[in-house]
Specification:
Blueprint lengths: L1 H24 L4 H9 L4 H12 L18 H36 L5 H6 L3 H22 L1 H17 L3 H4 L1 H37 L11 H12 L1 H4 L3 H26 L8 H31 L10 H12 L12 H17 L1 H9 L1
Length: 365
């Protein structure tokens, strides 16, 4: 009986010692604490437990967490809306400034400096011109913001839905999930915004004509006349080819940026705004260039909506353009795409940088 009591006391001492050592190893070793307190303690079990507890803590360090801020659909819309507003406002200011200077030079038809031309106008005329420009610029910002806001929100939603982590599931599986999430986000936002973008594109093309040749008076008139002539299909003409373009563009836009960022932006480049902007610019240019032929076909299909159809299908439009105008025509006027590319780059950069404090706070916890 005395030996049994002594043996029980020895067991209690070893258990206390084991729990004390396990707690000293750190909170990250909770698995071993649970394991040791729930198992049957035998002599060999105590020896293996003591060896594990006295081992170097390096083996128990958790793999580094993937840097990312798991927001919500609402927070993603908020940050994307703010980022898109800032980026579009900056580009609109630049575009309006250049357009204003060009118009002034054309009207004066004199090789004067811009400052001299500005002084030649009255205050009231200059103020009215500025107000008109700001009205147009504000309308452009309002029309632009919903699409990128939905794109970023849906991208975050699908990434949370797939729940693929680079450290846990491997880089290439994570790489593929980033592209799939981006493509799914592009298609989802396109389902909600296509009829509006379609009507907006037709109205913009119609406003480029002379006053007497214009077909539409406002955006509502575009909806009314298109629906009367072609029905609901007229408002979604070119939707299928646009889905293909959205899959390519948004898949590369989101997928390549999210996948290359942890590889390229390391060390001192991680906190560099210029490095982030350079990466976003390269990714946006590549995605835009890859999807531009699809966008060319889509614009041709939009122009024929409500009129006598010139193309039987998307493949017919693609083949006719390629046959009659050559492969270069698919990239015609790509240089005019610099403004949308710059805007999309700015949205990506501002969205990433605005969330950086939250990412850093998460990585420190």
């Amino acid at each position: 009986m005395a030996d049994q009591n002594q043996h029980s006391a020895t067991i209690s001492q070893l258990v206390s010692r084991q729990l004390h050592l396990s707690q000293d190893v750190g909170a990250g070793h909770g698995y071993f604490q649970r394991h040791f307190t729930c198992r049957n303690y035998t002599k060999s079990g105590f020896q293996s437990s003591l060896v594990a507890a006295n081992a170097s803590p390096v083996f128990f360090v958790q793999a580094p967490l993937e840097n990312g801020f798991d927001g919500t659909f609402g927070s993603d819309i908020f940050w994307a809306t703010f980022s898109a507003t800032v980026s579009k406002t900056i580009t609109e200011i630049g575009v309006r400034r250049m357009s204003f200077m060009e118009k002034e030079l054309e009207m004066m038809n004199l090789p004067k400096k811009p400052d001299e031309i500005m002084k030649s106008k009255g205050i009231r005329e200059r103020l009215s011109a500025r107000i008109k420009d700001w009205r147009v610029g504000t309308a452009n910002v309002i029309r632009y913001v919903p699409t990128p806001a939905l794109n970023f929100a849906f991208n975050g939603y699908f990434k949370r839905l797939f729940n693929i982590k680079k450290d846990r599931d491997g880089y290439w599986k994570w790489f593929a999930s980033n592209h799939v999430s981006g493509s799914a986000a592009g298609v989802s936002s396109l389902l909600l915004m296509y009829s509006f973008d379609h009507a907006q594109s037709r109205l913009a093309n119609d406003e480029a004509k002379k006053v007497g040749e214009r077909q539409f008076t406002c955006l509502v008139d575009v909806y009314r006349k298109t629906f009367a002539s072609n029905g609901i299909r007229g408002l979604h003409r070119g939707f299928n080819i646009s889905c293909v373009g959205a899959i390519i563009y948004r898949g590369l836009y989101f997928g390549m940026y999210d996948s290359l960022k942890p590889i390229v932006l390391t060390g001192s480049l991680r906190d560099s705004f210029y490095a982030t902007f350079a990466l976003a610019l390269v990714v946006t240019c590549g995605a835009s260039l890859a999807s531009y032929p699809i966008d060319t076909v889509r614009r041709r299909m939009v122009k024929t909506s409500g009129e006598a159809a010139n193309y039987k299908s998307y493949f017919d439009a693609f083949s006719q353009i390629l046959k009659s105008e050559g492969a270069k025509s698919l990239f015609k006027s790509y240089t005019t795409n610099i403004i949308p590319v710059a805007t999309a780059t700015g949205v990506l950069v501002f969205y990433d940088r605005l969330q950086k404090p939250f990412v850093d706070a998460k990585s420190m916890t």
